[in-house]
Write a structure and sequence with these properties.
34% helix, binds zinc ion, 9 helices, six-stranded mixed beta sheet, alpha/beta, 261 residues
């Protein structure tokens, strides 16, 4: 079985490496140089690139990696990423080629989920208890709505929340501590959140990634997945200055509040 390693890029991006003792696939290589350094240091051969969405901090390293390695590049069919060789989208037929990224060296099949909201064609890769979700679901937070709408994002997050609770969540950025600060403002009575904050603070003090997260802890602590909780509805209503009831309005209010937090 392959295992997963984080490579730091830019200020707070993670490039995820799926690897065994001689092969590596990378998810969202925004920058090629830390990836090339890692491959050389570990004596690994690159075998695939997977992109979740078109933002440059997720795809900017594709071209330079392709100058060194000829590999398939998987990416969203509904976004324009010039280096993508295998455009993918969610398919009803769960075995179909266009709905899966298959990495034969690892016998690993990752199913594609369409999760628009952060960008219009954003996809996630899910399989073997791993979820690579780019900038859609973050640990204790979610991505900004650059191209999509609140109802789309609520739907996309619900799709991810419905995955098995032990699914490992590998997202694109180390935003966890800041996200928890916001979550505690929105839902101060959540005991699981208080415990999570202490754990995350200890990890960050040692500069250890707070990821992967998992679906169970996100369900328990991520305010953007908890828009039906009375305390969150109450506080979002105070922020909005009017009573809110439906989950999409609560979500949209939280997203706006977080943007100004
Ligand atoms: Zn992004």
């Amino acid at each position: 079985m392959p295992y997963i390693v984080a490579i730091h890029a830019f200020i707070d991006n993670y490039i995820w490496v799926i690897r065994d003792h001689c092969h590596a696939a990378v998810v969202d290589p925004g920058d090629a140089s830390p990836v090339l350094d890692y491959l050389e240091q570990e004596k690994l051969k690159l075998i695939a690139i997977l992109n979740t969405h078109h933002h440059n901090d997720h795809v900017g390293g594709n071209a330079a990696l392709l100058r060194e390695f000829t590999v398939p590049v998987y990416g969203p069919a509904n976004e324009s990423i010039p280096t993508v060789t295998h455009p993918l989208k969610e398919c009803n037929d769960k075995e179909s080629a266009e709905g899966n990224a298959y990495i034969p060296e690892f016998s690993l099949s990752l199913r594609v989920l369409d999760i628009p909201g952060h960008t219009a064609g954003h996809i996630a890769y899910y399989g073997a208890n791993l979820l690579f979700c780019g900038d859609t679901l973050f640990a204790c937070g979610c991505g900004r709505l650059f191209e999509g709408t609140a109802p789309q994002m609520v739907n996309s997050l619900q799709k991810l929340t419905d995955l098995p609770k032990e699914t490992g969540v590998y997202c694109g950025h180390e935003y966890t501590l800041n996200n928890i600060r916001f979550a505690r403002t929105v839902e101060p009575g959540n005991q699981a959140l208080i415990e999570r904050e202490a754990k995350v603070e200890a990890l960050r003090k040692q500069n250890i990634p707070t990821l992967p997260s998992d679906i169970a802890i996100e369900r328990a602590t991520n305010p953007f997945l908890r828009c039906d909780q009375p305390e969150i509805i109450r506080n979002a209503s105070v922020y909005a200055g009017k009573p809110l009831s439906d989950p999409v309005s609560v979500f949209a209010t939280l997203r706006d509040w977080k943007n100004h937090f």
